[in-house]
Amino acid sequence: MTPDRPPTLSAERVGVLGDDDMQALCEATDAAILDGGGFGWVSSPGRRILEQYFRGILLVPERALFVGRLDGTIVGATQLLRPPRNNEAQAMSATLMHSFIAPYARGHGLARMMTEAVEDCARALGYQVLNLDVRETQEAAIRLYDSLGYRHWGTHPHYARVGGETVAGFFFTKRLQDRGRLAASRPEAVATAPDADKPAPVPRSLTLYPAIDLKDGACVRLRRGEMGDVTVYSDDPGAQARAWVAAGCRWLHVVDLNGAFAGRSVNAEAIEAVIANAEVPVQLGGGLRDMAAIERWLSAGVARVILGSAAVKNPELVRDACRAFPGRIVCGIDARDGRVATEGWAEVSELSAVELALRMQDMGVAAIVFTEIARDGMLTGLDIAQTCALSAQLSTPVVASGGVGRIEHLQALKAASAQCPGIEGVIVGRALYDGRIEPREALAVLG
Ligand code: AMZ
């Protein structure tokens, strides 16, 4: 940076982190932690952990990572956390956390820019309130939040131990929406507001996961998971992946069907073709039953792995995997009459879907994909009531699956998600392949 040129500043949400950005982010984080401020850690956890942590954030739908750049280099970061959404009150508020700027980049106003970027994002997602907490020793941050209109509403006297000292923590909150927006959700709060008839808050967007189910190397769809009732749609999984991405899809959902029956990956070549051709994150399930298989696919470029049978039969594996790969382990719960099926759905266990989901949530899975087997491939509509009931008992996001046949089914899910904010996305297979639903139309409805 030359002294006579003002620095360029920017704050943005990041979706992927290249090597240079990751390096700069870890360095800035380390410097901020060593300086004693602005992050959850009180001592440096080391480069490997930091890297794992940031990669994990990018894969957890409930978290959004924002970075601040000084002359193009990342020098700080903050996160928007969309907390458990079990009820309406929780669904109203988001949290700003782990905000920091490296000591060498302070004084330019980047922290303010990042905070405003987070606020804009939270506002666009329909949140009414942004909460945050900060140590009493972080005086610059306290001044900043004060000047941005945050209200200090509480103090925790034993908030953190820093350098052998106990320090207090301050809790701040800010109302994000204008009075018109607020009126839509709490009419009594602004009964006298002249603009009380403004529309309701923007509902959150749902992720569309187009399904690539692989059988004998080809892209297929089954009906109710029966291997005998199969429709082959493409014998080129790589081309199929490209097609869904070209149509605007931001994720791919891949299942190795032979693998789910065999208990090990069978369609490895086809999966590799999908990974090589997908410019978007891929989640993969089917036949992943041990740590070696999980590691293999995560290091081969899969963003998240889905564990189904292992969740029922080997929960310790799920726990260990969640610890080793935070944010990258998803549980697939496939239910027949509310009971969980395994081994390619050939076996039905005694376990209820809700029981398993709660256990998996405790293990730390990033999301739960819930499939109603009776509807899968039948085009008759999702089991929205069951999916909502499940998500209402969880703080982990739920992806709905099984039965989408028409655009109205997605509209119904979107409408239901206002009451069930834990629903994060939906898997669509046959209806997309048959052209009953156009990807762009689906993305427009869900987005
Ligand atoms: O259609 C089926 N018979 C089927 C299917 N789609 N069987 C399993 N699966 C999927 C699950 C989950 O994503 O929905 O395979 C995954 C689970 O595999 P596993 O091997 O972990 O149980």
Summarize the structure in words:
With 447 residues, this protein is an alpha/beta fold. It folds into two domains: 9-182, Aminopeptidase (3-Layer(aba) Sandwich), CATH 3.40.630; 207-446, TIM Barrel (Alpha-Beta Barrel), CATH 3.20.20.70. Helix content is 36%, strand content 30%. It is built from 17 helices and 19 strands. An eight-stranded parallel β-barrel has the order 8-11-12-13-14-17-18-19, surrounded by seven helices. A seven-stranded mixed β-sheet has the order 1-2-3-4-5-7-6, sandwiched between helices. The structure holds aminoimidazole 4-carboxamide ribonucleotide. The site of aminoimidazole 4-carboxamide ribonucleotide has 20 residues, from helix 8, strand 13, helix 11 and strand 14.
